[in-house]
Design brief:
By secondary structure, this protein is of the alpha/beta class. The protein has 2 domains: about 375 residues, no CATH class; about 80 residues, 2-Layer Sandwich (Transcription Regulator spoIIAA). About 65% of the residues lie in helices and about 10% in strands. It contains 21 helices and 6 strands. Strands 3-4-5-6 form a 4-stranded mixed β-sheet. α20 links the parallel β4 and β5.
């Protein structure tokens, strides 16, 4: 069978962009994957397994050409709770179950339904996860151990500060400072990813100087890290809830990231249902091999686009580079100080709090939803926090419907009635009371600035207008009436 040269040409022309981009993404993903595994209380190499599987499987099967998938910071808190509750082997089975559910959701073509979730709830969820990560890793940075809950991490922070281990703290702070200032480094250095520069630089300093600090420990090689899923011993209700939680969070994050990535380039748009199938397949494979849950990651995806990637080949290739590194050089990971990765994770967590999204929430009147959801995620858990946020968002929407703005003004005999917002039958008590307060025989201007006026509200205004005319008054209607 003859080859079609028109299909080969785009692949060859894209590779000259995708290969360099894949190397950049590889350098970004390597330290992030290790840090996310540690923050998740999972085996360190589980992060690399997820990065390898995510790039290859989603890159081949997914529907978002330039999105890069792997272990995600947005799932660290959930995974840490699951590891504490079920153990690592059962957590792998939960990842497999979440992947199966994602595939079923993708096949049922409901992926776009995830976009109906209020964006303020999603951003607040990520902010809450970011705060939780920062609180956990602050203890590691200071030379201690993170506590079981955010509240204990918070109240235990002053004592941890007093007993801080100086050398580890210096290394962690150096990582944070490097990441903060890296965007302003001169042009030749700026091509090196900040996370890689920070971790490699600080690790080198810790080896050259007499720094006796805790370092990352591995239980064997990458092949030794391959783990078969385990079956839970009872508590199936909690297991099912965990599967649903991981599936929903991973799906929403992946789909919203795919939409965000589409805004960063002019290439083909994402097929969200296909992307969800690809994400689910990757989670099945990652969980079956002992890897972390997988989702689309905005940090790697942005690095991919900024490096000039043109197709999903870049995501696939970056996973091959991680695999090539992990097989012979995984032992090098044990040279990295724990405090250095803690500094990296603190920066990742803080960056999940996006000031622009907070400003948008304040401008749109959604700041209470943002704040309550964030605090609930931090001090309860992700599932309860999101559920509270969604209920609050629905309640606020209903309140805004009920609370259409209705105002009356007068200057002598002339009256003015202004109706703003959404005016429905639920606003009738206030609307009819405002109209009834206007004296008979007056000149009235009714300004309808409402976005929506239902039949009941329209009928109430029309009935009052006829009655006011009958008693000698004048009514002038301005707006949608």
């Amino acid at each position: 069978m003859d080859r079609d040269p028109t299909k080969e040409r785009p692949l060859r022309s894209n590779l000259r962009y995708d290969v360099p981009a894949s190397l950049v993404v590889f350098l970004v993903a390597l330290p992030l994957s290790l840090g996310i595994a540690i923050a998740s209380d999972a085996p360190v190499l589980a992060g690399l397994i997820a990065a390898i599987v995510g790039g290859i499987v989603v890159g081949i099967m997914g529907g978002s050409p330039l999105q890069v998938s792997g272990p995600a910071a947005g799932l660290t808190v959930v995974v840490a709770d699951l590891v504490a509750q079920f153990g690592w082997a059962v957590t792998c089975l939960i990842t497999v179950g979440a992947g199966v559910l994602q595939v079923l959701l993708g096949l049922s073509r409901v992926a776009r339904a995830a976009l109906a979730i209020s964006p303020v709830v999603v951003h607040a969820m990520l902010a809450g996860i970011g705060i939780t990560i920062a609180l956990q890793q602050a203890h590691v940075l200071l030379g201690g151990e993170s506590k079981s809950t955010s509240w204990h991490n918070l109240v235990g922070l002053p004592a941890q500060l007093l007993g801080a281990h100086g050398r580890g703290l210096i290394l962690g702070v150096l990582v944070i400072v490097t990441l903060v200032v890296w965007r302003w480094v001169p042009k030749p250095l700026s091509h090196v990813p900040g996370p890689l520069a920070a971790i490699v630089g600080v690790t080198a300093i810790s080896l050259m100087l007499p720094f006796n600090v805790r370092r990352i420990t591995l239980d064997g090689s990458l092949l030794d890290a391959l783990t078969l899923p385990g079956i839970p011993k009872g508590n199936w209700g909690a297991f099912a809830t965990a599967v649903l939680t991981v599936a929903l969070i991973a799906s929403v994050q992946s789909l919203l990231t795919a939409v965000a990535v589409d805004r960063l380039h002019d290439g083909p748009r994402s097929d969200l249902n296909r992307e969800l199938i690809g994400q689910g397949t990757a989670n099945i494979a990652s969980g079956a091999m002992g890897g972390l849950p997988i989702a689309g990651v905005i940090v790697r995806s942005t690095a991919n686009i900024n490096a000039g990637a043109k197709s999903s080949a870049s995501a696939v290739l970056h996973s091959f580079w991680i695999l090539l590194f992990a097989l012979p050089f995984a032992a090098l990971v044990q040279k990295i100080p724990s405090a250095a990765l803690a500094g990296l994770l603190i920066v990742i967590g803080i960056r999940l709090l996006q000031p622009a999204q907070i400003q948008i929430a304040r401008r749109n009147g959604d700041f209470v939803i943002y704040l309550v959801t964030t605090l609930a995620v931090v001090f309860l858990n992700v599932l309860h926090g999101v559920a509270i946020g969604l209920l609050l968002a629905v309640a606020f929407t209903g309140w805004r419907v009920i609370r259409a703005k209705i105002a009356t003004e007068n200057d002598g005999e002339n009256w003015r009635v202004v109706v703003e917002g959404i005016c429905t039958f639920m606003s009738l008590p206030r609307l009819t009371a405002a109209l009834a307060s206007i004296p008979q025989g007056t000149v009235v201007t009714v300004e309808m600035l409402a976005h929506y006026l239902d039949h009941a509200a329209h009928q109430a205004i029309d009935d009052w207008r006829r009655q006011h005319h009958a008693t000698g008054g004048t009514v002038r209607l301005v707006g949608m009436l």
